[in-house]
Design goal:
This protein has five helices and no strands. It is mainly alpha-helical. The chain has one domain. It starts with a helix and ends with a helix. It is elongated.
């Protein structure tokens, strides 16, 4: 059960990361279409959910930092 929760938290983290990336890259076309406010609300909800649900230890595991920072 613990690993399933970690998998779902990882999915939430990477969805938030990709949504933020696409939002930042396409903000000019989002503004042209008039859906900036909706995207901003979804972005805030995703970021706040990530910061409240994912702890620093879990973030360390999710981002594979233990494998990338081997000495």
């Amino acid at each position: 059960m613990k690993t399933i929760k970690l998998i779902f938290k990882g999915i939430l983290f990477y969805i938030t990361f990709l949504f933020t990336l696409f939002f930042m890259l396409g903000v000019d076309s989002i503004m042209d279409n008039g859906i900036f406010l909706q995207f901003m609300i979804v972005e805030m909800i995703l970021v706040l959910t990530c910061t409240n649900i994912i702890s620093k230890d879990e973030l360390y595991k999710i981002t594979f930092s233990k494998y990338l920072n081997k000495e």
